[in-house]
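Teaching note: in complex prediction, the entire set of molecules is handled at once rather than each chain in isolation. The prompt given to students was simply: 'Predict the structure of this complex.' The entities are:
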Amino acid sequence: MATETLDVGAAERPVRLALGRYFSHPGAVIGLIILVCWILVTILAPILAPYNPADLVARARQPPSADHWLGTDMLGRDVLSRVIYGSRISISIGFIAVLLGGISGVILGLLAGYFGGWTDTVISRFVDALLAFPSILLALVVIAALGASIQNMMIAVGIATLPDYARLVRGTVLAIKSQPYVEAARLVGNSHLRILARHILINVNAPIVVLATLQIGSAILIGAGLSFLGLGAQPPTPEWGLMSAEGRQMLQRAWWISTFPGVAILSVVIACNLVGDGLRSALDPKMRMG
Amino acid sequence: MRRYVLGRLLQLIPVLFLVSLIVFAVMRLLPGDPALLMLSGAEGGAITPERLNELREQMGLNEPLAAQYLNFVLGALQGDLGSSIRFQVPVIDLILDRFGSTFELAVAGLFLAIAIGMPLGMIAAARQGGWIDSLCMTLSYIGSSMPVYWLGLLLVLVFSFTLHWFPSAGGGSFEALILPAFTLGLLSAGVLARLIRSSMLEVATEDYMRTARAKGLFPRLIIFRHGLKNAMIPVLTMIGLQFGALLAGTVVTETVFSRPGLGRLIVDSILSKDYPLVQGAILFLAVVYLLVNLAVDLAYALLDPRIRYGN
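The expected output is the structure of the full assembly:
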């Protein structure tokens, strides 16, 4: 494929090119801005939140007003403050779950693709079996076994996203492991570990980063869904899915309790998806956005 | 074709084996003794060691793990998934009782997803780069970034509490099916629309499409006869996967709308630690999901000869 001559001394060029491609998509830039804002919110929560998220600060079920921009919930807690503090929990659920699933999925995929043979057969069958469950169902299986809590939910969502990484990495490794530079590295006497880390992983990192970014969004969605069902965060935690569940019973009288946490999730997930798509087109010119 | 069908059926066996193994393993990983849970959960009163041992014997828990697994699989093959701790009736009866409602919801959701997503994706592809394209893709983007339960709550708020068109909860009637079906269908419609768009755009660059255009066929005919037919292959796979996602999505949707379905049953049984029921219901849904995907694979092997001879 690559037949152009190498332009020596332009090592930073691919990075700059990729950045240029990324910032040429308005959607990707908007997504990045939203995401950065949310990350700032998680960090600055104590400064930004007008009230303590656990305090009963006003009468229950007050509609949005100047004192309480997003109203108060069924106990009289400030919804805005709870949404702000909730970002810490909901967003870290997404990141940690993806980290867990990503690391284990990448390791499985590397081993399966690189060693082949029995290793590949065993790992691939295992991954196939995980893929036989729709991801929420797989998460439910894990929660059924471990019990309902935030930590277990992160593990559950991580396991539910693991097969995607394993499949992606295995496929890419299969494609590049017979490349001359990998053969060369092997002939020179490098250890398997070194070849995997220095020569193979480095060439599959772009698709992994793209997948992980897109997965953060879906991990946040699954996590919020599980908390909504009562299988994740437990009261009085200010978690977005749980907040919607708590407001559900009084949706007719106090719509703001359930709806605002959902707006927060929607904006975070859209931002993750926009950034993911932007990264995809920046890192892989073959798959540019429409 | 027969060889292909047979091959695909044979491939299903190891996957089913592993799926059952995972579900079984989950049951064993549980902290606590299922027999003890059953005694404390259902029978109340004093738990005597004799009664516990009797029950363990009865549930086959005193046998080696391999034998327990074998019993589980043999039972499952004959439709025996054990008894529910909470309801004290066979798990399979509970599942079959609730599955109808869940299946109905998933099928209605899939129908809406196709009815909304297909035209949306096709229009977007035909008018690539135009404002209709941007609008369709923005809508599908928002749709696929929304929490299922939240969309359900919004629909209830608007169409049930404000407009009073549909009931907000319950099952059994056609009116009660509409909002949950839209909740599920709208989300999948977004995914489908995007896929159909990209698939049609990809097909549009193929040689046979250029030939069709060069022959001077009507653009509409080209889109439907040549474009859509070939673009449908990845879309069909996706529909199969989406049906699984819809089945899983019913878990949340049934809770939002208080529908008595299999998904709600699974959540309740996890919360009440009714493990035989969790195990049986999840195994059941996973098998349904596998069979649906098998049916989709066979359907497109039927449509596309390249697939049945390729592998």
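Point out the following to students. The CA atoms of residues 52 and 81 of chain A lie 7 Å apart. The domain at 84-287 of chain A is CATH 1.10.3720.10 (MetI-like fold).
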